[in-house]
Amino acid sequence: MKDAQSPLVVITGGSSGIGRATAMLFARRGWRVGLIARGAEGLAASRHDVESAGAQVATAQADVADSAALRAAADAIVAALGAIELWINCAGNGVYGWFGEVPEAEFRRVTEVRA
């Protein structure tokens, strides 16, 4: 484990993709890592990876579109690891297909994700 005095980064969307890769970069550089994401399974896998890199990690399940849940997640990470030095937003979702063929509901789901 890294020193408890090492800086803490919190990464939303930390269970997959760019967020998970970013978590690993910070873990390998000695940062403590807080991960926030919607899915428990992905969070658990990311937690394992970050711990395997030798970093302290705390996870919290939340949807970034729910400000109360996001605040509670941040508070839980602060309680576990201390003050946040850096916050990185990598949460998002997507849909694959030709622009003109994407149903409006799917387009709205992708573009209306906000914190």
Could you characterize what this model shows?
The protein is an alpha/beta fold. It has one domain: NAD(P)-binding Rossmann-like Domain (Rossmann fold, 3-Layer(aba) Sandwich). It is 42% helix and 17% strand. It has helices at 17-28, 40-52, 67-81, 104-111, and strands spanning 8-12, 32-37, 57-61, 86-89. Strands 3-2-1-4 form a four-stranded parallel beta sheet, with helices on both faces. α1 (17-28) links the parallel β1 (8-12) and β2. The termini are far apart.
Short summary:
With 115 residues, the protein is α/β, with parallel strands linked by helices.
CATH topology: Rossmann fold
Uncertain ranges = none
The SS-based structural class is alpha/beta
Which range does the strand content fall in?
15-25%
CATH homologous superfamily title: NAD(P)-binding Rossmann-like Domain
| Sheet having the most strands | 4 strands, parallel
Radius of gyration: 15 Å
Shape: elongated
Count of individual domains: 1
Spatial gap, N to C terminus: 31 Å
Helix % is 40-55%
Order of helices and strands: EHEHEHEH
Return the CATH class. Answer: Alpha Beta
**What would you say the CATH architecture is?**
3-Layer(aba) Sandwich
Strand order of the largest sheet: 3-2-1-4
- The oligomeric state is single chain
Number of strands: 4
Relevant terms:
single chain, 115 residues, alpha/beta, Rossmann fold, four-stranded parallel β-sheet, 4 helices, elongated
Please specify the SSE layout and strand pairing.
Layout: E1 8-12, H1 17-28, E2 32-37, H2 40-52, E3 57-61, H3 67-81, E4 86-89, H4 104-111
Parallel strand pairs: 1-2, 1-4, 2-3
Helix pairs in contact: 1-2
